[in-house]
Every structure is written in structure tokens, then in C-alpha cells.
Amino acid sequence: MAGKASATPATYSPSPTGHRKKRPPTLTDSDWIRPDGRTVHQCRPAFLRTGAVNSASGSAYAEFGNTKVIVSVFGPRESKKAMMYSDTGRLNCNVSYTNFATPNRSQAPEPKDLSSMLHKALEGAIILKSFPKTTVDVFALVLESGGSDLPVITTCASLALADAGIMLYDMVASVSVSCYGKNLLIDPVSEEESYQDGSLLITCMPSRNEVTQMTVTGDWSTPKIHEAMQLCLDACSKLGKIMRTSLKESASCPHD
Amino acid sequence: MEYVNPEGLRLDGRRPMEMRQLRGEIGVVSKADGSAVFEMGNTKVIAAVYGPREVQNRSQQLNDQALVRCEYSMANFSTGDRMRKPKGDRRSTEISLVIRQTMEASILTHLMPRSQIDIFVQVLQADGGTRSACINAATLALADAGIPMRDLVTSCSAGYLNGTPLLDLNYVEDSAGGADVTVGILPKLDKVTLLQMDAKLQMDTFENVMQLAIEGCKAVASYIREILLDNTKQLEFRRGV
Amino acid sequence: MIFSKVKGVLADEVLDLPTQCPSSRTPPPPSPVTVQPPASSPLDFEVRLGIAGKVVKRYSFLIGDPLMVGLSFGEKNFIKGGIAHDLRTDGRKRLTYRPIFVETGVIPQASGSARVKMGATDVIASVKAELGKPNPSHPDKGKVSIYVDCSPTAEPTFEGRGGEELSTELSSALQRCLLGGKSGAGAGIDLSSLSIVEGKVCWDLYIDGLVVSSDGNVLDALGAAIKAALSNTAIPKVQVAANASSDEQPEVDVSDEEFLQFDTSGVGRHYIVDATTEEESQMSSAISVSINRQGRICGLTKRGGAGLDPSVILDMISVGKHVSEQLINKLDSEIAAAEACDEDNEMDS
């Protein structure tokens, strides 16, 4: 059961109407333990593998705690006939949720919105000039939603693009933080996301130190944004290293 | 329900043969080649015309005349109850078609072969007679875009309730279930380009109602002519002619 | 036969052209005064975003933009050169907004509505309040939903489903800055003021935006229109007669006499510097920051694909903050003027 295992006994029923889960008390202590036993500035263990889908040109599977995502990349292939001529390539992103991804079927976020966010995050990293007249399709499927879905999708998608051999300026890594009273929680799980006062998401190309996508919700002061950005960028560069390692691994022992 | 009271006044205080207040304005969407707002009482419509321009979809290109396209859309807040309908439902597809055919009848399409004219109408407020208001707005916008036309198409509706022919129905009268006759005419040529009716009417009553609607169209036509004349005078003034 | 070419506001508009080719509508050719020296290769020249003269990104063309504008090489250079010299094509400085025109109460059926014009950008926002059931996870709060619709009158490419992509993008950007975090902190609208009976009845606010004409910076115009529409919104005061047994829905008495006035915490937004469509087509990336009256950031969205250095983003935020202070004041006075005008009209009628 997603994310809410250790703090409260897991129940499968959606939270009953009227009864509200109490938001845990806000602690200023930085080594306060989170529902899954992490400290505030600790990310979930990342598991990344390329080559999850055989028929695709490139694919990747990512598992960050309970968030499990599979991304397949097709192309570059000829753009649809109806599309006008373009001297640069096109990127087409599509995010979908499985019916069992969320505890409550109706809880899945708007996939159209996520798709356009993913498009924005990836478009800056792909050398679209390298494949004119063609389209690259990125299909992401969220198998299980356990919080910070979009960063995981973005990270996994960029790994899949690299696996497909699409020309990239750099792989993008994405991390979000939740603002929670005075605390900043990195890589929040669903439960933390539902209590958050604000969130900040950064997608960046670690080796170029460029941000391709950034969104902020909630109420922030400038120093706080500064702090959160630093935190995210640091985490992104570390995540970038993990992505690199997993890509190298798959290249050194090619699967049959 | 009584739609015409004994004093001969309708629900909104009009006489049976009285039209709602008309208001038209040219050039509201500065980026379009031609645009206009047209109000009939509480019904308010914006029309924008793009073209004549290159045909977007080559397979639709016509070699002997211009391709006229039309899209009708309603704003979410246009009706009393908020609704969120997907684009391209049956009603709006039908109205798009009606407007397109009506406007096509007046545009000299043979002068602009292999080109395309787009008419977009957007309903901001709907209070009955959106069809007529859209056609009137589209006429103004086409004239603003300088597209050659045979005549100004104008449209007006009329109905028959409580044994009285009523001009220019509003929403309440329209949904009363009586007949609703929408007519579009070319006033100078005295030709009918659009005639729609739902429900049934006696043959001779129908003729009366239709005649009333045609009179309404003519009134609209003279108003539209006034607006165009005013607009041209203003342009003349600005040029210092 | 009607051959009246009666177009436009410009005095020197050509009047005797019955058919007009679209390309003739593009801006006049650049005057040679402020043009930058031509770049060495057509595929690699600098785009300067109007931030303190800093070169933001080296980039070639904006890719896959739905609002692609057919600009010639010279026109592109003219725009860029102008931005570099702090004098844009329409005579503005880098950090100057176009004049904002606000009109409130334009949709009589809605609880509140406003129309905002910034140059040729024209948007309408309406607020409608309906009684609904609160979300079980937030029983003490009302609900707000924001939808934006792009009318094809603004841009022929919005025809059919063509405007949907932009509509979702605009809606989600507005949601992000108006609705705050999941816990409701930092929201522009005080959701708990929408609650009527905790857990049973609340107000559902439907905010609808409609883009009638677009000439760049639609997001800001929508934000301003929503702010104006909310300040124009009056929700009937509700009296609850809680005498029925607990299973029954409490009776809700909606009276029209007393009004509950609404105000947002004042969301102003700064989008690089209120670019027009032509300028937008030359940008490699843009950031929309929404700043509230207290000068705190309550929403940020990056648009456009190219990457940005983190320090540039922080720089943009501070510029945004600076400009938005002026914008909020200007908007407030515009809204106040519009409301006064609205009331006068009501008195007259």
C-alpha cells in the first residue's frame, strides 16, 4: 500500500468522509523521521533500468520507493502526413496512469497536464535539429503512484530517450521538494504531498547546470525558494550520476 | 403560461412586433482581418474573419472558388447554468453548418479561387436567437474584412405564441415550445437564404410569421448598413479625406 | 456588390484592397537605426530576454511553437536589437507593461466578471458560484475550479481541438498560482470563506477564462481579469436553518439582499516583460512568476523549452517582484475605476 505503511496501519478503504487524517505535528528538528523512515533531506532509493519494453526504440523502468513508472520511446519516425513540414523534429509526450496506480481510482491527476509538463521538461534537452521531419513519441505509464510522480516520470523518460539513442544535450534529472511549515521535504511521498503547504519542482541538465522546467505552488519567500532550489539542484546532480551509472551498466552488458 | 399579457406586452415588456435593442461594433479583435460584436438584447456574439488566405488543408482546396469555413462555439459562461460541453457537439456542428451555408450564399466565392475564408463565431451571452445574432455578426465581420459579397445577409427570428406572432424571441419565449422561424435574407436582392422552423404552424399563420421575420431582417439590415457607413466615415475622417 | 474595405484603426491603412494577403499584415520592415550587426550564421544568434541586458540563452529558433509567427530574418533581428537597446518595437522599455484596460460586470449572468485588454490581447473572465458538496478531505473548505478556453476568434489554429493544448497549459498555470499548496496554504482565494456548513454544503466557484484575442502575454491578462472578476464577485449571503434531523441536508436559504464581498490577496504576475506575439516567438524561454501583495511568491511556471541557468531564474524572480509591485498598484486603480464606472451605469439605468 502506497506510502502510508509505517506511520498508520495500512487500510485499503479510502479515507471515510467526515473523518480527517490529522496532519502530523510540524517539527523544526531537521532529523525528524518521515513516514518511510527518511530524514528531511534524504531521497528515496532510486532504482533505474533501461530496456523494459522490447518493441520500443528505447525504454526505461524507474522505481522510487512506491512510485513505479515505465517509459517507452518510439522513433524518430516519420511525422503524420497531416503535420506540416518542419525542419526540426517533433516531440510527442503522453502520460497515463493504470487503473490501479492510485488507491482511489478517481484520484489520478490530470494526465493531459502532466503530458504537457513532461513535454516542456524534455524539449529543451533534445537536439531536435538532428531529426527533421520526424517525431519522437514518449509514452509514460505510471504503474503505481507513490508521490513525486512527475519528477520520476521525467527522469525515467530522459533515461529512455538516452536508451533510444536520441541526441540529447544532456540527460535531465528532476526532483521536487515539499514545503511543510518551516521544513523542506525532499522527494515527498503521496501522503506528504497531500499535506504540503507548497511545492517546488526542478528539472535540470546537471552537467550543463541549466534548468529546463520549474514550477512552484504555494506561498514562498525568496530566500526559501533559493534554499529549495539549491537542495533540488544538488539532488538532481546526484540523481544524474545514478542515471549515468545505470546507462553505463546496460551498455557494458547488453541484454539479449 | 401567458407570453403576451392583455395589454399586449411580452414578458420583457416589448410589443409583439418589437425587436430587442441592437448594438454592433466593428473591429474588436485587432489581429483578425475582420471582426465584429453583435448584440441583440442580452444575446452577445463575437465574430472574427480570417482570410482570404492560402488553403490550410490542400485536399480541401477548390480550384474554381474560395473555401468558406465556419466554427461556432459557446463560452462556458454564456448560459444561465454553467455548462462544460466538449467542443464540436451536435448542436454547434449544426449551427456552424447553417452559418457557413448562409454566408457562402452571399460571398462572391468565384472571385477568390484556391483560397480559404474562416469565420469564427463565439457566443458570449446566449438569450435566444444566437443563430440570427451569429449571422449578423458574421456579416459585419466579413464586410470589415473587405470580402466581396452580393449583399449583406441579415437574419432574424420570429415565433408564434398565444395566438400572436412575436418578433425576435428571447430564451424564455424560445423554450416555450411554440414555433420558432429563423429567416436569413439578402435584403437588397429580396432573396431568402436561410429558413428554419421547428414545431408546426398553419400554412397561413406561417406566412404571417415569416413575413414578420423578414421585416425584422430588413430592420437589422438597415442598422448594419448604418454601422458600416459610420465606420467608413470614421476611417475617412482619420485619413483626413 | 459590396467592396467596402473598412478595416482597422491605423490612419494609413490601405483602404482599397478588396482581398488582403495575410503576409501584408506583418509589421513594417525594420528601420536601420537599432539593428544589431547580423549574426555570423543564421542558425546561431543570440536571443536577449529583457532582463538587465543579460544574455540569457544562446539558441536558434523556438521549436514547435503553436503561435509561430511568420517573421523574416530582418524582423527577427529588429526585435532582438530593440530589446538589446531597451527600446522595443512598440516603443516600450524592457520592463514596461502595455496599458491595461479593465471593464467589470460584462457578463450579467455570472456572479462576477471582467474583461481585460492589454494592447491587442483581449480576455474575459467570469466567476460563477454554485452550491455544492465539499471535498471529504477538506470539509471546511469550498472548491474552486479554473478553466480557460481559447476561442478560435483569437487565432485560427485554435479551431476545433487546436486550442486545447494551450487551454490546459493556461488553466494549470493559473491553478498553480491561485489555489496554493495542497493544504490550501498560500492560496489567492480564501477557501474557508466559501464553506457554508462544514462537510455538507459549500460554494463551488467556477472561474472561466475566455481568450477572445491574443497578442502575447495571455497568461497575465487572464490573471488580471480573474483578479478583477473576483473583486467584482458578490456571493449571496446564506442563512442556514439547522433544525432538520442530522441525516437530512440542512436547509440553505439563499438571500439576495446581503452580499459577501470577495477579495483575493492580490495576485499580480510578471511574465518576462509583457511580450507581444512577435516577441514571444523569439523567446527561447520565459518564466511566469505570481507575486502577492506581501511580496511573496505564490506560483511559478517556466514556459518554453530551452534550459536556463539557476542564477538567471533567481534574477528573473527578483525582476518580476519589482515589476509586479507597480503592476498590482496599477491594476488596483484600474479595477477601482472600472467598478466605479459600473456602479454609475447601474445608477443611470
TrEMBL record, chain A:
GO terms for cellular component: cytoplasmic exosome (RNase complex); nuclear exosome (RNase complex); nucleolus
Start and end residues of each Exoribonuclease phosphorolytic domain: 42-166, 170-231
Pfam families: RNase_PH, RNase_PH_C
Organism: Buddleja alternifolia
GO MF annotation list: RNA binding
Family, similarity comment: Belongs to the RNase PH family.
Keywords: Cytoplasm, Exosome, Nucleus, RNA-binding, rRNA processing
Major location (coarse): cytoplasm
Cellular localization per UniProt: Cytoplasm; Nucleus
Protein name: Exosome complex component MTR3
Lineage: Eukaryota, Viridiplantae, Streptophyta, Embryophyta, Tracheophyta
Region annotation Disordered: where it falls in the sequence: 1-35
GO biological process, one term: U4 snRNA 3'-end processing
From TrEMBL, chain B:
Main location group: cytoplasm
Domain Exoribonuclease phosphorolytic: 18-148, 151-216
Cited Pfam families: RNase_PH, RNase_PH_C
GO CC annotations, alphabetized: cytoplasmic exosome (RNase complex); nuclear exosome (RNase complex); nucleolus
Keyword Cytoplasm recorded: yes
Matching InterPro entries: ExoRNase_PH_dom1, ExoRNase_PH_dom2, ExoRNase_PH_dom2_sf, PNPase/RNase_PH_dom_sf, Ribosomal_Su5_D2-typ_SF, RNase_PH
An example molecular function term from Gene Ontology annotations: RNA binding
Location of this chain's protein in the cell: Cytoplasm; Nucleus, Nucleolus
One record GO biological process: rRNA catabolic process
Keywords, sorted A to Z: Cytoplasm, Exosome
Family membership noted in the UniProt record: Belongs to the RNase PH family.
Protein name: Exosome complex component RRP41
Protein's organism: Buddleja alternifolia
Automatic annotation (TrEMBL), chain C:
Region annotated Disordered, chain positions: 19-39
Protein name: Ribosomal RNA-processing protein 42
GO cellular component: cytoplasmic exosome (RNase complex); nuclear exosome (RNase complex); nucleolus
Domain Exoribonuclease phosphorolytic: 97-236, 267-321
Entry keywords, A to Z: Cytoplasm, Exosome
Stretch forming the signal peptide: none
MF terms (GO), sorted A to Z: mRNA 3'-UTR AU-rich region binding
CDD domains: RNase_PH_RRP42
